[in-house]
């Protein structure tokens, strides 16, 4: 969802797994699969940093929540970075739902409070 000359740095992790840093250009994606924790404590969060725009967003991308499961069609959460912010694809209702504004400056996952 970004302009063609943009690079999006994506870094996602959970308490147990660091999924690494990925530099995405327009039309590319980063995906992973996992099995949620049986006791309902699965949490993944990501940093998305629009490198040349000097803006970022750090936010939860998966948590155990029935409303999130519905929007992800119980199978695939699709997050989309656009010029004006971060969206979650509401699959059953077929629209991109605005979720997060970009923040100024570069960001790090280390500063994100997951507590």
Rg (C-alpha, Å)? 14 Å
The largest beta-sheet arranges its strands as 2-1-3-4-8
- Molecular shape: globular
Instruction: Tally the beta strands.
Output: 8
**Helix fraction?**
under 10%
Tell me what you see in this structure:
This protein is mainly beta and 115 residues long. The protein is built from 1 helix and 8 strands, in the order E-E-E-E-H-E-E-E-E. The chain is globular and about 40 Å long. It starts with 6 loop residues before the first strand and ends in an 11-residue tail after the last strand. The mean pLDDT is 87.
Brief characterization of the structure:
With 115 residues, this protein is mainly beta.
Ordered list of secondary-structure elements with their pairings:
Blueprint: E1 7-13, E2 18-25, E3 43-50, E4 55-63, H1 66-71, E5 79-82, E6 85-90, E7 95-100, E8 103-104
Antiparallel strand pairs: 1-2, 1-3, 3-4, 4-8, 5-6, 6-7
Structural key phrases:
115 residues, mainly beta, three-stranded antiparallel β-sheet, 43% strand, globular
